[in-house]
Amino acid sequence: MRKFLVGAFALALLLALGSYGIWTLQRPEGHYLSDLRITVALDHGTPSDRGNLLGIEPLLYPVDYQNLQRLHRKLAAYLEQAKALGMLTPKTVVVLPEHVGTWLWARGEKNELYQVTQRREALQWLEISNPVRYGLAVLMAEGEDRRGDAHLRMKAGQMAADYQALFGGLAKEFAVTLVAGSIVLPAPYAEQGRLYPGTGALFNCSVVFDATGAVLGQPQRQRFPDSDVRRFIQGEQAQPLQTFATPAGTLGVLVGSDSWYPQNQQQLATQSVDLVANPAFLGGRDRWTAPWRGNRHQSASAQLPLKPGEVSEQAAWQTLVGAPSKPVTRMTVFLRGQFWDMGSDGQGFAGVDGQSLGGPPHAGARLLNVWL
Fold first, then answer.
1. Where are the beta strands (DSSP E) in 237-274?
2. How many CB atoms lie within 10 A of CB 234?
3. Structural domain contains residue 26
4. Of 142, 177, 346, 348, which has fewest CB within 10 angstroms of its CB?
5. Is 311 exposed, middle or buried (0-12, 13-18, 19+ CB in 10 A)?
6. How far apart are alpha carbons 88 and 71 in whole angstroms?
7. Are 207 and 176 in contact (CB under 8 A)?
């Protein structure tokens, strides 16, 4: 009798594990509706053969990341509208916001992940739907927040391939230079024009694609990660900032709050850049008008001319990023949308000839264009 019970229990356990394994492989897709509208918030200057710096602030939600076709459809629709307005030329440099690629961790998951309202619930669905990948990622995780590390590390190979295919494909499709916001990957590197994840710590990096869809240079790693992600994302201060040769001039990239620090801006100035792209992300609702939080976990922030709470986020960004003098043109763009219970805020702006230009605020997707 005991042998029978043990055998029955073992069989039931195998059936349960088999059913769970089959369940984890199922990825049905739900109904999808998307708003493809975008508003021109800024169109400065007149068209010229020198090209233009074009910022896109997309309005995105978790369901946009369920597959690459959905995300491509939305981003391509924005670019098509810019093209119809005459804003795309062979010398156009397009700038997308910070972390537009990081959310690719949500690609190809179960419908439940996109339907829940809390981010912690979405992460729980990610874990139980990918038990093996998640378990291995936890073992390889670094930093203080091993769980936060594992959520990104577990799909790094897929994320890098998706990022290359999507953003390299858009650059080639529209024949532009594309600063593809940013993505978080372990020790990312480029080889023969393609992006790959390495091994080691996670870095928030921006990748520039040329008009053939190839990666220019190496991924530009963020130097001073902000307080929200410092527990699992490493900063890169050992290597100098890169510059990228584009048809519109020499380009520098400052990821997120890296644009606040004078030493970064001065380093690009000594490298004689013509353009500075600043992909940014500001999490939370109504943060743009709330008191500036600063970055107390970075020792370099002690040298900033502002102290947390003195001014609003808007005033702090526009003051610290600054409005460069000729011949440098700068573009800061923010990611917009709602990621479960995590909102996003920020209104992008450009720096031209000593002026800060942003256009009227708008809750939806925005285009910001500056002719050089």
1. 243-246, 249-253
2. 19
3. no
4. 142
5. middle
6. 20
7. no
pLDDT (mean) for 287-293: 94
Specify the residue for token string 């042998």: 3
Q: Which residues constitute the domain of residue 191?
A: 34-99+161-371
pLDDT in tens, 99-111: 999 999 999 999 9
Give the model confidence (pLDDT) of 313-326 as tens digits.
999 999 999 877 77
Kindly state the DSSP code that residue 105 receives in the 8-state scheme.
Answer: G
Do 137 and 216 touch, CB atoms closer than 8 A? no
Say how far apart CA 195 and CA 205 lie, in whole Å: 11
Residue 245 amino acid letter: A
* Residue range 251-280: mean pLDDT, rounded: 95
Residue 73, domain CATH: 3.60.110.10
Cβ neighbourhood burial of 103 (10 Å; 0-12, 13-18, 19+):
buried
Residue 152 lies in a domain: no
Give me the amino acid identity at 126. L
CA-based diameter of the chain, in Å? 88
Neighbours of 89 (CB within 10 A): 19
Strands 329-334 and 349-352: antiparallel
Q: What is the domain count for the chain?
A: 1
Q: Cα separation of 104 and 88, whole Å?
A: 26
